[in-house]
Amino acid sequence: MRMKKIYLGTNWKMHKNSADTKLYLQTLNEYIIDVDFEKVAIFVIPPYTSLSTVKKALKNSKLLYGAQNMHWQDEGAFTGEISPRMLKDFDIDLIELGHSERRQYYNENDIDLNRKVKAALKYNFTPLICVGEKEEDKKYGIGPEVIRKQLKIILHGVDGNALANLWIAYEPVWAIGEDGKPATPDYVKMIHGIIRDTIGELYNEEIAKEVPILYGGSVNENNAYLFLREENVNGLFIGRAAWEPKSFSRIIHQTIETFC
Ligand code: PGA
């Protein structure tokens, strides 16, 4: 069953200053002027330093935006961290949590992510929770177990009603970035099914079927549709192939022509 809406977005990682941001959004808006936002949700996740530029640029826009990480506390002695209360100033819609680069380089773990999800929901941000197994996990055939474990910890104690305002991105670590190889559509379908089932077990089927599950990892113009046509793939979370507005807009238009 296909959800009504398709979700297409990009995490900019540590790219683009304010001037780049302004230009990107201006150009993207021109390319997608005809897009029906009832059919697709489009989002950008810039670095913190671009958030005020994004807020201004998207004031009357239906494009959604968010931040790449946050602390779970409102304030405190946590040098270098940004709190949900601070992010509220920028009217963000989304908060990306648990990207594998944060797990790998900054030791972020599922217990921290559980705290962050709860804090995000308290502030009415939509958590975009990234889960994904490492190459080694895949080699030993334990990808499904890793994903289930991540979800069970990250969603521990999260109220079922909150799931209406929560998205999941499946991002296998081995598929991300320059050295990554995209997962096969069959494999993505299998893991997305496991994600849906796990949420169903933790809550119930009704709740599970409403949660958007996005795939991310070396998505580009040529392979985007191969993922989107699979069951339980409700959208794409794109890195490199969406850092140029033109190529992002091509993926958006292609998706609308093929699936909407
Ligand atoms: P990529 O990044 O599309 O450049 O592989 C995906 C991600 O890290 O979310």
Descriptive tags:
single chain; 260 residues; alpha/beta; eight-stranded parallel β-barrel; globular; binds 2-phosphoglycolic acid
Structural commentary:
Helix content is 41%, strand content 14%. The protein has helices spanning 18-31, 51-57, 84-88, 100-106, 110-122, 135-139, 143-154, 185-202, 205-209, 224-228, 245-259, and strands at residues 6-11, 40-45, 64-67, 94-97, 126-131, 167-170, 213-215, 235-238. The model has no long low-confidence stretch (mean pLDDT 97). 2-phosphoglycolic acid is lined by residues 11, 171, 176-177, 180, 216-219, 237-241.
Helix and strand arrangement:
Layout lengths: L5 E6 L6 H14 L8 E6 L5 H7 L6 E4 L16 H5 L5 E4 L2 H7 L3 H13 L3 E6 L3 H5 L3 H12 L12 E4 L14 H18 L2 H5 L3 E3 L8 H5 L6 E4 L6 H15 L1
Parallel strand pairs: 1-2, 1-8, 2-3, 3-4, 4-5, 5-6, 6-7, 7-8
Quick rundown:
The chain has helices at 18-31, 51-57, 84-88, 100-106, 110-122, 135-139, 143-154, 185-202, 205-209, 224-228, 245-259; strands at 6-11, 40-45, 64-67, 94-97, 126-131, 167-170, 213-215, 235-238. By secondary structure, the protein is α/β, with parallel strands linked by helices.
